[in-house]
């Protein structure tokens, strides 16, 4: 996200201004205050958004302060997304399944936790005229981003989800998530496989409608890496989506594009998860195209 300094130097804070914040550590680099405050000003909304450096040890007090000050809500980044679940009152269906929260909304003193990452991913696909309903989707990765995406894909009606990851602690946690998803969304077929089974991996991608990289492979300084080693897996009708946004065109997307795939970079996921959170906070639509041009 592009940084814009002093975006609201002339903002008018009143006795009625509602406070929103980003909790996490570190947060000095975050572009969220500029994006949100620009949108508030553009729509004439009496809110202000700030970034507050809070680690795990101070999170409980920060949430208590949010209640005390009647904040409209707050976003969470690392390392607070999991721990905050113990300090709030209610979880949305996707947050409960994912086991992490990145957005909390104060509804008359009741703090409700959401996870907008998966929705941001799906909305980014929809912005490119791609739907997930009744699709077979391969997801590489089993960390936080992958979990958010897998849950939302299931909730939004994917026919089959095939997850590939190394057998590790995150693999085991994903198995537990899959069991929770199956209880909530029994119509979606969902399985996880060892990514070291290269034949299974390649053949499954060849049969897929959508392929998702939800790992850091391809992100600087790993820009020479790709999660797909055998490029014969690519086919013309395959949609290839990457959560990595630095660089915008990863090695995966470049090779997929050369093979005729439809390629979607990770920048839009950042935008659309913010758009969804903005709607939860304000009930209004963020001026998406203006925000995209100024901050992305």
Can you summarize this structure?
The chain is globular, with a radius of gyration of 19 Å. The chain has helices at residues 32-43, 59-68, 93-98, 117-127, 144-155, 169-184, 198-206, 251-258, 267-282, 288-295, and strands at 18-24, 47-53, 73-76, 90-91, 103-107, 110-114, 136-140, 160-165, 189-194, 210-213, 239-242, 262-264.
| Distance N to C terminus | 5 Å
CATH topology of the largest domain: Rossmann fold
Q: How many discrete structural domains?
A: 2
Average pLDDT works out at 95
CATH class of the largest domain: Alpha Beta
**How are the strands ordered across the major sheet?**
2-1-3-5-6-4
Which terms summarize this structure?
296 residues, alpha/beta, Rossmann fold, six-stranded parallel β-sheet, 10 helices, 36% helix, 20% strand, globular
Architecture overview:
- This protein folds into two domains: 18-114 and 270-295, Leucine Dehydrogenase, chain A, domain 1 (Rossmann fold, 3-Layer(aba) Sandwich); 118-264, NAD(P)-binding Rossmann-like Domain (Rossmann fold, 3-Layer(aba) Sandwich), CATH 3.40.50.720.
- The protein has a six-stranded mixed sheet, sandwiched between helices. It has a six-stranded parallel sheet with strand order 9-8-7-10-11-12, with helices on both faces.
- With 296 residues, it is an alpha/beta fold.
- The protein is globular and about 60 Å long.
- It is built from ten helices and twelve strands.
- The termini are close together.
- Residues 22-104 form the Shikimate dehydrogenase substrate binding N-terminal domain.
- The active site is at 81 (proton acceptor).
- Involved in the biosynthesis of the chorismate, which leads to the biosynthesis of aromatic amino acids. Catalyzes the reversible NADPH linked reduction of 3-dehydroshikimate (DHSA) to yield shikimate (SA).
């Amino acid at each position: 996200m592009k940084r814009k300094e002093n975006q609201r130097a002339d903002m008018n804070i009143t006795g009625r201004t509602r406070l929103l914040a980003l909790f996490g550590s570190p947060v000095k680099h975050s572009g969220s205050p500029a994006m949100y405050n620009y949108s508030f000003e553009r729509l004439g909304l009496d809110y202000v958004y700030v970034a507050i450096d809070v680690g795990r040890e101070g999170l409980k007090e920060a949430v208590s302060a949010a209640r005390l000050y009647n904040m409209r809500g707050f976003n969470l980044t690392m390392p607070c997304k999991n721990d905050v679940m113990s300090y709030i009152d209610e979880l949305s269906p996707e947050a409960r399944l994912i086991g992490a929260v990145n957005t909390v909304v104060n509804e008359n003193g009741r703090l409700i936790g959401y996870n907008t990452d998966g929705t941001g991913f799906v909305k980014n696909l929809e912005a490119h005229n791609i739907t997930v309903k009744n699709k077979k989707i391969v997801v590489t990765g089993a960390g936080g981003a992958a979990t958010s995406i897998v849950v939302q894909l299931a909730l939004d009606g994917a026919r089959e989800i095939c997850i590939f990851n190394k057998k590790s602690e995150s693999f085991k946690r994903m198995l537990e998530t899959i069991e929770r998803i199956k209880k909530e969304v029994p119509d979606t077929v969902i399985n996880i496989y060892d990514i070291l089974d290269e034949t299974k991996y390649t053949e499954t991608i060849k049969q897929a409608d959508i392929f998702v990289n939800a790992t850091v492979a391809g992100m600087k300084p790993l820009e020479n890496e790709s999660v797909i080693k055998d490029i014969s897996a690519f086919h013309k009708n395959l949609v290839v989506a990457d959560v990595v946004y630095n660089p915008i065109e990863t090695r995966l997307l470049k090779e997929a594009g050369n093979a005729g795939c439809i390629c979607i970079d990770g920048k839009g996921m950042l935008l659309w998860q913010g758009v969804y959170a903005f709607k939860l906070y304000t009930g209004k639509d963020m001026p998406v195209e203006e925000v995209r041009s100024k901050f992305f």
